[in-house]
Every structure is written in C-alpha cells, then in structure tokens.
C-alpha cells in the first residue's frame, strides 16, 4: 500500500476515533505500524510530521480566510450619497458617518424622491439588505439608475471604509 495513502488512512481513523471518544491518538501508532509495517518509533515520527503539516495547513487556511474579511473594499464611488433606510431608532443605535436617514417603511424615502438627484450615485443599506432592496426598487421606478444595495450596516461599513457612529 502507498505510504502516503496509508498515513492518511491511519490519521483519519485516529481522528475519527478521537472524535468519538475512542482514544484516536492512542490507536493511531498501532495502525501506522500495522498498515505500514514499520516500527513504533518510525510511526511516531510519521505522525509528528503529518500533524505538523496538518496544523500548518489549518493555520494558513484560517489566516487567509480572515485576511479578506477585515479590510474595507473601498470600491464605491466616493461622491455617492449614502442612505440609511432603517427606522430612526435603528439609526440612533449606530449608523454610517454622513448617512442620510430616510425610513423606507415610514414613507420618508418616497417623500424625499423629488428632492434627490436622479443622476447621482446612491449607496443604500438597512439591517439585512431587504429594505435596501425595496428602496432600490422604489428608486428605479422613479428613474434613478446608479443604485447599490450595501446590505447591513456592517457590510456597508466594510464596503465604504466609513466608520460606524455609535451613540
């Protein structure tokens, strides 16, 4: 049997047994010795190398996945008007710096449409992106074209790089 396949099989069995409370790390060395036909000392060396490689790969994946989430995208038009379509209470609990509050559920957005420039770019956010989507539909029907749903407040902060103003 191929050594790398046997080592992988032994580790998988050992991990499975360990997860099931069966002492996987205790049983992995005998599995290595039986499957590979090697001594206990050599089996322990193989296990250490495989464990170190596995931990390195896990660390690399973890660091790589974290790196993309914390940096702002900043791929938005800096002159765009930012609209918060949440309720005044939601806005007061935290909002993007400089955001215009136009509560879509109370009709404030619809009432403000005649005063807004239909040629301008608009970035719209709410709690989850649902109301922002509804606001975009209303604005499209009124002739606005440069509209972007930023999703939630946190997503909007990440997309724009703007700070969240806290009370």
TrEMBL record:
<dbReference type="InterPro" id="IPR050229">
    <property type="entry name" value="GlpE_sulfurtransferase"/>
</dbReference>
<feature type="transmembrane region" description="Helical">
    <location>
        <begin position="50"/>
        <end position="71"/>
    </location>
</feature>
<keyword id="KW-0472">Membrane</keyword>
<feature type="domain" description="Rhodanese">
    <location>
        <begin position="76"/>
        <end position="165"/>
    </location>
</feature>
<dbReference type="Pfam" id="PF00581">
    <property type="entry name" value="Rhodanese"/>
</dbReference>
<feature type="transmembrane region" description="Helical">
    <location>
        <begin position="6"/>
        <end position="38"/>
    </location>
</feature>
<dbReference type="InterPro" id="IPR036873">
    <property type="entry name" value="Rhodanese-like_dom_sf"/>
</dbReference>
<keyword id="KW-0812">Transmembrane</keyword>
<dbReference type="InterPro" id="IPR001763">
    <property type="entry name" value="Rhodanese-like_dom"/>
</dbReference>
<keyword id="KW-1133">Transmembrane helix</keyword>
<protein>
    <submittedName>
        <fullName>Rhodanese-like domain-containing protein</fullName>
    </submittedName>
</protein>
């Amino acid at each position: 049997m191929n050594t790398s396949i046997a080592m992988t099989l032994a580790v998988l069995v050992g991990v499975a047994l360990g997860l099931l409370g069966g002492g996987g790390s205790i049983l992995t060395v005998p599995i290595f010795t039986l499957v590979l036909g090697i001594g206990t000392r050599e089996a322990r060396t193989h296990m250490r190398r495989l464990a170190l490689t596995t931990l390195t790969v896990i660390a690399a994946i973890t660091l790589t996945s974290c790196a993309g989430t914390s940096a702002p995208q900043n791929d938005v038009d800096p002159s765009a008007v930012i609209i918060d379509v949440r309720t005044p209470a939601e806005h007061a609990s935290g909002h993007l710096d400089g955001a215009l509050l136009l509560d879509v559920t109370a009709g404030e957005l619809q009432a403000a449409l005649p005063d807004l420039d239909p040629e301008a770019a608009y970035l719209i956010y709410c709690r989850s992106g649902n109301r922002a989507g509804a606001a975009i539909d209303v604005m499209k029907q009124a002739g606005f074209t440069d509209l972007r749903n930023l999703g939630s407040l946190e997503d909007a902060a990440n997309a724009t790089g703007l700070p969240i103003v806290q009370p």
